[in-house]
């Protein structure tokens, strides 16, 4: 019975060493390829690729001409936009507001750069592990995988969940001050990414007997490269999680380190 337990422990030890020295490196290389492919899709300078001059044009609109925006997206910035949206004035009379974004003062989509930075950090975490590096324990591998997963989750979240800004912050932002011509003081606009779409939103403040609120209208347009980036982020996360799950099987054996051997059980009492 004791010999069977020792043999089972030895087999587990051998499998553990094979996973550390072969399977993890193979898996990390696969994740690395996916992430580099993801980096190639980003319209910014990222990991040796430079698509910052990539230019795309979109029309964001809603029915009844409530809002219409012709956008030129260059890299991670809106370099030109022709913007029209309706607001309501006294007696519910609609008024059309027109403004524009020009090359001299582009509207930067910070979410894109944030996601790219997190992606690059994830790739660097893998690069820091040499192809011939010998892992020493499951904890060491889990720490590295945790860093990669954290970077990928933050990068993906940057694109899926836009940071909420208070209406006052929007109205006083540098982007708003760069609009030409200026828009009415009780209005604001915003551009942001949500999942695979570019969103344009227009806001109008109302003050009724001291109660301040705002109405908003938004239009959206799917951006092809964003969809591809999110798919690759998700694949990278899934592959990383599979590696983590595989190594977690061994993490319960805290005394396992490469080269260690299970000792024979002591005499019974």
Automatic annotation (TrEMBL):
Pfam families assigned: Rogdi_lz
Question: Which InterPro entries did the record assign?
Answer: RAVE2/Rogdi
**Upper lineage:** Eukaryota, Metazoa, Ecdysozoa, Arthropoda, Hexapoda
Could you identify this protein by its name? Protein rogdi
Domain of life the protein comes from: Eukaryota
Q: Family membership, please give it.
A: Belongs to the rogdi family.
């Amino acid at each position: 019975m004791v010999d069977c337990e020792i043999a089972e422990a030895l087999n587990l030890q051998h499998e553990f060493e094979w996973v550390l020295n072969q399977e993890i490196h193979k898996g990390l290389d696969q994740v690395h390829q996916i992430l580099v492919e993801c980096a190639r899709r980003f319209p910014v300078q990222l990991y040796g690729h430079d698509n910052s001059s990539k230019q795309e044009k979109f029309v964001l609109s809603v029915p009844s001409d409530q809002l219409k925006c012709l956008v030129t997206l260059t890299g991670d910035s809106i370099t030109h936009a022709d913007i029209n949206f309706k607001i309501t004035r006294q007696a519910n009379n609609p008024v059309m507001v027109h403004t524009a974004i020009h090359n001299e003062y582009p509207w930067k989509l910070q979410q894109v750069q944030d996601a790219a930075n997190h992606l690059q950090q994830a790739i660097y975490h893998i690069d820091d592990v040499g192809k011939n590096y010998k892992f020493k324990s499951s904890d060491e591998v889990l720490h590295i995988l945790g860093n990669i997963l954290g970077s990928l989750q933050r990068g993906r979240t940057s694109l899926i969940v836009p940071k909420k800004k208070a209406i006052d912050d929007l109205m006083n932002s540098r982007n708003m001050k760069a609009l030409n011509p200026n828009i009415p003081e009780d209005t604001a606009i915003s551009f942001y990414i949500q999942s695979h779409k570019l969103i344009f939103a227009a806001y109008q403040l109302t003050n009724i007997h001291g109660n301040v609120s705002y109405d908003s209208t938004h239009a959206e347009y799917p951006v092809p490269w964003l969809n591809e980036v999110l798919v690759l982020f998700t694949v990278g996360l899934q592959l990383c999680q599979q590696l983590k799950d595989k190594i977690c099987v061994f993490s319960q054996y805290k005394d396992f380190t490469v080269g260690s051997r299970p000792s024979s059980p002591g005499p019974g009492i």
